[in-house]
Write a structure and sequence with these properties.
Helices cover about 40% and strands about 15% of the residues. By secondary structure, it is α/β, with parallel strands linked by helices. Helix 2 (about 25-40) packs across helix 3 (about 55-70), helix 9 (about 225-230) crosses helix 19 (about 460-480) and helix 10 (about 260-270) runs parallel beside helix 18 (about 440-450).
């Protein structure tokens, strides 16, 4: 499923209507699909009020109202603009609604329209579409405010009115929907921290756009279960431990051994063939019995912190560094050495990202893939911007950084954004608030390490790793855990359930 900007959606609409030849049929399809979804949610005894505006969303609204009317629902239309403001196409669909006997609520100064909003069981928001880029104009802003203050339940058509479709905008007044029926493809604002909540629950309906237009226009998509099932490599009957990667994890300290242990166990549980753990002698003594499947190599340490000794990099298919490593001066040198010397994919997480902020120039010199897995705070530090600025433009900033330093970015959050050096981006929507605990990121790093060593592209590996990590948490919640008690170690144990549920057990 592709994710689009407002311009991309406009271009796809235009090509579908004009070049492909759908014409008015596209708006008819949109309204009918939204009406079908509403009919699944509403009772025939419910009072429905469809609020329409001047643009294409208003046209969709008239089709919704007419379709529901013809299915015997109690529906009325509140037209929030005069007729002369309606486009020709919207006026066409208004005439059809009127000819079918549709009723209206007058939009005037006596406040009857406010009462109609308050009395409706469901308000269908078809006031404004994806074209808005600033504040809602005077008059319509009163409608948005009234819907937010008085409506019992709000179902938005395509996008909540007043909400920007794109990133980077914070000055807006928008409808807060309980549910949104998104038409054709999610817009970027569906996945931004400051705008996602306005959508409520959402789902996407297809209305006939040719798939090739999205593939041509959009560079972002949702890495969902279909993508995972299509791209996750199958295991051969004659496979051996070397077939599935020889990985190395560098990290840990005498002061923080736990996160290191979780990364090791997650990598093995996710399917890595061989994992070597390189850490201090004390860390290895403490965790070896927890993960006996791993191999261990001691690195020189100073007061419990790793120092720049020999690293067992030869023959490794991927390396992860930074987990529980600490922010000591010696560990900064260790990171530099790993960046310079590793001749395979390198995953940098945790304290490795802290040290990286002063060594970004090293990334451009690497000839092998580099993967960074920051959360918002770590990414903001790398970019030297405020977290608040990053949060309103995460797609933009991740893409700029990935292209500049030739790295892959896994920007962790409610909706994790995966970005490739060539600018491709994917969003992972699995996972839940139970992951908001220490250790969750360490588990993800282990899964990433395992995935990048399997026969798939780095980008596919990152998408699949994020899917498995989040889906494990989702399945654990569904099977008895709660958002309160879920632990990172539970997520590790849940990996097997993801594979069983989504992959053919004979091949996985």
């Amino acid at each position: 499923m592709f994710i689009v900007t407002a311009k991309e959606m406009y271009d796809i609409d235009h090509c579908t209507m004009q070049k492909i030849g759908f014409g008015k049929l596209l708006m008819e399809n949109a309204g009918r699909e939204v009406a079908r979804k509403i009919s699944q949610r509403a009772r025939v005894t419910d009072k429905l009020l469809v609020v329409v505006g001047p643009g294409n969303n208003g046209g969709d609204g008239f089709v919704v109202a007419r379709t529901l009317l013809n299915e015997q629902f109690d529906v009325k239309v509140l037209q929030a603009v005069p007729d002369e403001k309606l486009s020709e196409q919207v006026q066409f669909y208004k005439n059809l609604y009127h000819a079918c006997g549709g009723e209206y609520v007058a939009f005037d100064g006596d406040g009857a329209w406010k009462k109609a909003i308050a009395e409706a069981d469901i308000v269908v928001d078809a006031l404004l579409g994806i074209g808005i880029k600033g504040a809602v104009r005077k008059g319509l802003d009163a409608v948005v405010t009234c819907i937010n203050e008085r409506a019992k339940k709000v179902l938005a058509v395509d996008i909540p009115s007043g909400l920007p479709a794109d990133e980077g905008l914070t000055d807006f007044t928008a409808v807060k929907a309980d549910e949104t029926i998104i038409i054709a493809a999610p817009k970027i604002s569906t996945f931004l921290p400051h705008t996602a909540g306005y959508y409520g629950k959402w789902e996407v309906v297809s209305i006939g756009h040719p798939a090739k237009l999205f593939a041509k226009s959009a560079t972002r998509f949702i890495a969902d279960s279909n993508y995972f099932q299509r791209t996750m490599p199958k295991r051969n009957l004659d496979a051996h431990k070397g077939s599935h990667g020889k990985g190395l994890v560098i990290g840990g300290s005498d002061h923080m051994p736990g996160s290191f242990a979780m990364t090791l166990r997650a990598a093995l549980r996710a399917g890595a063939g061989l994992i070597t753990a390189a850490s201090t002698e004390k860390v290895i003594d403490g965790i070896a019995n927890l993960t006996p499947e791993a191999m261990y190599q001691t690195i020189a340490s100073n007061d419990g912190w790793l120092t720049t000794g020999d690293l067992p990099l030869d023959g490794k298919d991927a390396v992860a560094i930074g987990i529980g490593m600490g922010r000591h001066a010696d560990t900064a040198k260790l990171l530099q050495k790993a960046v310079n010397a590793s001749a395979c994919p390198l995953i940098i997480d945790g304290d490795g990202l802290y040290h990286l902020q002063n060594n970004l120039h090293l990334l451009k010199q690497r000839k092998h893939p580099t993967i960074l897995t920051p959360h918002m705070g770590e990414m903001a530090r790398l970019l030297q911007v405020d977290i608040s600025e990053l949060a309103i433009k995460p797609f933009h900033y991740a893409k700029v950084f990935a292209e500049k330093y030739n790295v892959y970015i896994v920007l962790k959050g409610r909706f994790t954004i995966i970005t490739a050096p060539d600018g491709r981006q994917a969003v992972n929507t699995t996972g839940n608030q139970g992951l908001a605990k220490g250790g969750s990121g360490d588990v993800l790093t282990g899964i990433v390490l395992s995935m990048v060593m399997q026969p798939q592209s780095i980008f596919q590996a990152l998408c699949n790793a994020c899917f498995v990590h989040g889906m494990s948490a989702d399945l654990q919640i569904a099977s008895g855990h709660t958002y309160y008690d879920l632990l990172a170690t539970d997520v590790i144990e849940g990996i097997a359930g993801v594979y069983r549920h989504f992959l053919d057990p004979k091949n996985s």
